[in-house]
Amino acid sequence: MEPPPLVLLVGLALLGAAGLTRSLSITSAESAFEKAQGERVTLPCTFELSEEDVGTLDIEWVLIPADIQKKEETIILYSGDRIYNHYHPALAGRLQFTSSDPKSGDGSVDILNLKSADTGTYQCKVKKAPGVESLKIQLNVLVKPASTKCSIEGSQEIGKDIVLKCASQEGTPLLYYDWRRVVTGTQGLPATSVLNKNTGELLLKNASKDYSGTYSCVASNRVGTDECSVELNVTPPINTAGVIAGAILGTLLGLALLAFLVICCCKKHREKKYEKEVHHEIREDVLPPKSRSSTARSYIGSNRSSLGSMSPSNMEGYSKTPYSQVPSEDFERTSGQNQTIASSKGGVPSAYSSLTSHTRLVT
Biased composition, Polar residues: where in the chain (predicted)? Predict the structure, then answer.
């Protein structure tokens, strides 16, 4: 049974109206990006408008925080043919619209010089009344491995177990490490080696001379790699007995030298002390010299006192006294000195002559 012609006409009219009417829609498909720190990323947000969308076009990008308790934050806005991008200080100078004319249907944004702190969920909102549409994009900023260092742990002797270590100072986990030996014609590791790709340790068991060579380590994650190398030189065991004997001999020689220096210092100290004691004793034995002039005056004065007490009974003794004999201790001089003194001051001999004359008169 065929449907009534009126019903067919109404249905066709509705279908045609639905096909001619379009609403605002976002055509971008990518919703997740993973980039390395320092790189550049473009977050897409292309859209199409309908004839019914007659309002002002607004394109707003917001950052949705990981903490649901916090509010989303506007980072850049296009409205009324003007761009506002001063909302988020952390992105200042690094965030811009990809197109110079976003109203043409491209509301994508570029983030320059990415940082790990830029990781998060971004949302593009396009509004042109009555149409409204949005798109969420997840951005992960990873740090490449960097400052990777290689080292050797253990004695590099034949028969010993040696551990080669590799570690990156920077880099977003998960980091993976891979070792290889750089030898002409081959890059294989020794048969006894054990590699831990998570810790970066390479264990070389029962090392032999053939294990010597250059070993290279490559650290990697999802956004980059870094490399370091180390030189391994496996040698015969060291003669520990000889080393110990040499150390003991060196210690004994050092002690002997120290003892010799101590003995020399003590001997030198005793000699200096003895010299000081002898010099001091000599200075104590020497009496200070007497004043010649004071000695002469005391001698004459004592004789004058004796003359004052003279009497006839004791004059005989004085007359026989040899006044001309002056003690050599007090009046010992050269002939030239005696003459000078006698002529300048009257001298002691003149006094003696006067005294003799006086004695004769009394007698």
Answer: 291-327, 334-343, 351-363
String of DSSP letters for 46-68: BEE--TT--S--EEEEEEE-SST
pTM listed for this prediction: 0.56
Q: Ranked by mean pLDDT, which of 34-38, 257-261, 284-288 comes out on top?
A: 34-38
User: For residue 299, which of 247, 350, 352, 244 has the smallest C-alpha distance?
Assistant: 352
Beta strands in the chain (DSSP E): 25-26, 32-36, 41-43, 47-48, 58-64, 73-79, 82-84, 95-97, 109-111, 120-128, 131-142, 146-153, 162-170, 176-182, 193-196, 201-204, 213-221, 224-232
Distance CA 209, CA 340 (A): 108
Return contacts of 298-304, CB within 8 angstroms, 24+ apart: 299/326, 299/327, 299/330, 300/348, 300/351, 303/355, 304/355
Q: Which residue has the tokens 């030298």?
A: 257
- Cβ contacts of 154-158, under 8 Å, gap ≥ 24: 156/207, 156/232, 156/233, 156/234, 156/235, 157/207, 157/234, 157/235, 157/236, 157/237, 157/238, 158/207, 158/208, 158/209, 158/234, 158/235, 158/236, 158/237
pLDDT band at 94 (very low <50, low <70, confident <90, very high): very high
Q: How many CB atoms lie within 10 A of CB 174?
A: 10
Q: Counting every residue, how long is the chain?
A: 363
Contact 167, 158 (CB under 8 A): no
CA distance readout (Å), 101 to 59, 76, 87, 315: 12, 14, 20, 156
Distance CA 217, CA 178 (A): 6
**CA nearest 244: which of 235, 256, 252?**
252
| Amino acid (one-letter) located at 62 | V
How far is 257 from 238, CA to CA, in rounded Å? 29
Digit-coded pLDDT (tens) for 125-169? 999 999 999 999 999 999 999 999 999 999 999 999 999 999 999
In contact, 50 and 131? CB cutoff 8 Å: yes
d(CA 108, CA 87): 17
